[in-house]
Amino acid sequence: MDDRAPLSGYEVLRTRDVDVARHRVGRTFADHRLTINGQPELFEARHHVVPLGSMALAYLDYGSEVWLNPGPIDDMVLVHMPLRGAVDTYGHRERVVSTPAMASIAQPEQPFAMHWQAGSPHLLVRFSETELRRLLGRMVAADLQQTLRFSLGQDLCSERMRSWLEVVRLVCRQVDSGSDLFTHPLAVRNLEQLLTSGFLLSSAHSGSELLHGPERSAAPRSLRLALDFLYAHLADPITVEEIAAAAGVGVRALQESFRRHLETTPTAYLRNLRLDQARADLLTGRPGTTSVTDVALRWGFVHLGRFAADYRKAFGESPRDTLLR
Questions:
Q1: How do the domains of the chain map onto residue ranges?
Q2: Which helix (DSSP H) or strand (DSSP E) does residue 208 occupy?
């Protein structure tokens, strides 16, 4: 195995014990069965993980030939990119051979199994399906409810995916250089959005037509002006009247536009945006130095009880639970 493997400063596992490897890798991704298929003397699992808000970059190698059979995948879209070698990937009535030119995708509600050849180290990018869907909804000004579906195989030689992969490699190089960039929450949040939006624009998925299709209908200019104003003033105490003024329409027209195109209200949309930002701060914060109260106030939540209730409703856990992850 190569001691110069990517993200080596973030090693969380190096073992020849199959059960230890299965357990630790499962903590990063999902519970799974791990079976050595040949030459057990070659088995040595190495795992490196760099958290980036709701997503993560990772390196994984088993050394020997193995089978991986994940259990149910809940809220994860996992991009597998072999650095060398080959992996047979099986989905629903579909088989893809993953190589350095072809990524494969594990995702919710879809069967998935992998047969790794010996000497097939991987670079992986883990996304939250919920966060991908939220961001796609913002990009196309729509309220998306259905789980995104990604093609099992993703061509890394396509122009779009090649550009996204270059960004991934750039971030990995920054990590390996020892840059302190990843200690700053704002920088982490920006990198997370860059990688996430780039993946949505580059990969093949059920929402691709919304982004690239010729029949996509644009939201009214006033709505886009309102959304631009919201994103520019997320931490500011703004009113519906100010949003309407920025959009160049009256309050009633603004509310109707949000209802028709986003199926929500300006106030609810702003609250959800602020909840997303609060979650990003909590995910990148440290329990000893980050305060739930400070994060809530930073994003305009002055009623802490209501903030906690809204947060749990949106993410299925308390703000404190997120901070203690």
A1: 8-146+153-209, 221-323
A2: helix 208-212
